[in-house]
Amino acid sequence: MLSSPVWRGTPTLAFCAGLVCGGALTALVLVVAGSLLRAPLPDAVRWGVVAATLVAVLLRETGVWSFRLPENRRLVPDTVFRLGRHLGPLQFGFEMGTGVRTYLPSGLPYVAAVAVALTAPLPAALAAGAGFGLGRALMTTANVRYDPDGGWDGEWLAHHRLLRWLTFAAFAVPLGAVSLLSATP
Length: 185
Known about the structure:
With 185 residues, the protein is mostly helical. Helix content is 70%, strand content 0%.
């Protein structure tokens, strides 16, 4: 869909803007709801919940522990495209950017959601949400532009174990650094 001529140029920008806005809105909702949860909990307990979530997702990602994460197991419906060349991609991107309307290929966004809800101030939460949207935009546009024959998916399948470990490390190391920095007075 995104590789058709209709999706080139400004519609692609509308799609990517929707992804970023959707991610930022989700982060805003998480930080507001999380403010109710974090008020009675000490920092150590909140970071402990984040760490436990991270370990559970690591075990799931590596196949040691099998459990389902909540996700909407449907794609965004084609009806969003009735809105036209720019609003359709914007809505599609927004819904995909929230992370609640489509598949999530990894459990790491769940760890990010728990971390945002329990530990993040508003600016950091918005940055995390925008980062989620930018990550989805990068993945989607790179996939579409890689080649017309599905080579991106083939590369992922060929290297998925290494890529899972690398993405996990790229997520966990900064999260650990933030948790350590927030614990020091």
